[in-house]
From TrEMBL:
Keywords: Ribonucleoprotein, Ribosomal protein, RNA-binding, rRNA-binding. This is Small ribosomal subunit protein uS17. Belongs to the universal ribosomal protein uS17 family. One of the primary rRNA binding proteins, it binds specifically to the 5'-end of 16S ribosomal RNA. The gene is rpsQ. GO terms for cellular component: cytosolic small ribosomal subunit. It holds the Pfam family Ribosomal_S17. InterPro entries: NA-bd_OB-fold (IPR012340), Ribosomal_uS17 (IPR000266), Ribosomal_uS17_bact/chlr (IPR019984). Part of the 30S ribosomal subunit. GO terms for molecular function: rRNA binding; structural constituent of ribosome. HAMAP family: Ribosomal_uS17_B. It comes from the Bacteria. It comes from Phaeovibrio sulfidiphilus.
Length: 79
């Protein structure tokens, strides 16, 4: 099964080797037909502490690294 890849913005880099990435998704409301934005935060592994707050990154699913961390950062400035 392929690993999921998501794109988001780093909202916190205070932890060691971990960044918190906010991923936003848009979907159409089934009744009102308007587009709604929903966001979710993921803890992602950043081995070299190279990503800072505000960076646009891509994260990939991986084997669990800790209780909350099962994603890893794979790319900076994803557009």
């Amino acid at each position: 099964m392929p690993k999921r890849i998501l794109q988001g913005v780093v909202v916190s880099d205070k932890q060691d080797k971990t960044v918190v990435v906010k991923v936003e998704r848009r979907f159409r409301h089934p009744i009102y037909k308007k587009f709604i934005k929903r966001s979710k935060k993921f803890a992602a592994h950043d081995e070299n502490n190279q990503f800072k707050e505000g960076d646009l990154v891509r994260i990939r699913e991986c084997a669990p690294i800790s209780r909350r961390k099962s994603w890893e950062v794979i790319l900076e400035n994803a557009e």
